[in-house]
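Supplementary Methods S3. Complex input for the flavin-adenine dinucleotide-bound model.
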Amino acid sequence: MQNSNPPPNGPILIWFRKDLRLDDNHALHASVQSGRGVIPVYIREPAENGTGPLGAAQAWWLHHSLHALSESLSNLGSSLLLLTGKPQDVFARLVVETGASGIYWNRRYDPDGIGVDGALKNRLGDIGMTVKSFAGQILHEPARWKTGSGTPYRVYTPFWRALEASGEPDAPLDAPTQIPAPADWPKSEKLADWNLLPAKPDWAETFREVWTPGEAAALERLQDFIDETLDGYKANRDLPARDGTSRLSPHLALGEISPARIWHATRNLKDVPVEDIVTFRKELVWRDFSYHLLFHNPDLPRENLNRRYDRFEWADDGDAFKLWTKGRTGYPIVDAGMRQLWRHGTMHNRVRMIAASFLIKDLLIDWRRGEAWFRDTLVDADPASNAASWQWVAGSGADASPFFRVFNPILQGEKFDPDGTYVKTFVPELQDMPTKFVHRPFEAPATVLTGAGVTLGETYPKPLVDHAKARDRALAAYGNVKDAA
Ligand code: FAD
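Predicted complex, serialized as structure tokens:
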């Protein structure tokens, strides 16, 4: 990088990454406070940079999120510069072109991102730039938390207790009301040229039925959740047919809203039972816990945290995997979840657990294949939460569900979707199936099937595996690794 001897009053470059918001944005706040011109930048980093491949569903979201951020900045007399390349190359050019004196960003905690940022910080520092990074993507910095014996946490409950005992996260900062412009604006690329949206076919059309990306929509969603859904969260959050959760995860994944803003919005709510608030906050802290795990175990998305699972003999069944992705396993709750994922780029948390368990334990397919599929299809795909959750279900992760706890897709369906409303929403071919059989159509008498217009193997698939036998097979496979060192 060229030594540019930056002018002391040159503008500040603020690098937006997974913080596509004006509210509670510490880097933006500091750049405005500096009193210099501010140049907001978003860089489309090459996939080989390792900062996490962008899944197709999240690319759709990113397009709309960048558009929204760009509009918000314009309303404050600013602009969003869109550039492509390795950050070190992009900044080398920009520093010369703009005479910038500093670069600010909010920290990210995925290992590849940390690598890129660390190297860049050194190089920019070497040429006299002021480089500052700030917290804000998660509630608490992951490096800060250690168990009594000085090691990172691997069990959630003591992690939660430590965070709880440390007091409230810092209060969020309000969005700036004006952003000083630089004397000149560098040329930006055009968002439309990035081709983030699917074209032919536009498979994301159905996403619009349920999602509105962007910071304004995130803040509105938070308010609606507090007003209408938080009361009763503890009881409702496990029922996929209810609108019982916040649905904030895709907004959080790209940083359209900060977790501190969410946390503080749940303070001093006199009309909401404490147990609902605490249960919700604990979920929010699972996100921090996932980042804590990823930060201290950079291979979390790739390697079993518990290395004994390295010897697990996975089945290499491409056909079964394909049927799982298409929601054609013959188990209605699994199929409904996988079709919700395809239609809306999301899946209810309870059903994510059931569908993941089915892939890993009933089909004996490596959790990494499921993790990759979710990464590509979820609008909330998150390197920490996705990997940690898949390892949790597989039993190979930290504080994981034990492998021998195999979810029964029929009983789970009957417990959490008792009248089959969720199944019928996403598996319309079971629309007329009586409640008694909606989670077990393969046990329905012929007259019931005929009455419901279902022909197994034709209008709806026969079960891909017999769950009881699949469970035995999974436990036998687990038996081969459970005593390994
Ligand atoms: P709420 O119930 O309203 O919870 C509030 C917030 O807490 C969420 O937005 C989320 O940020 C966080 N949260 C809730 N549950 C968890 C959890 N178990 N782990 C980590 N954070 C949590 N979540 C993602 O954000 N991205 C993923 O890629 C992802 N992949 C998953 C894969 C599997 C196999 C499983 C079982 C879970 C996964 N989750 C993931 C966690 C969880 O399913 C979603 O965060 C949740 O469904 C989002 O809905 P919500 O915003 O309405 O959650």
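The longest helix spans residues 274-296. The chain has 19 helices and five strands.
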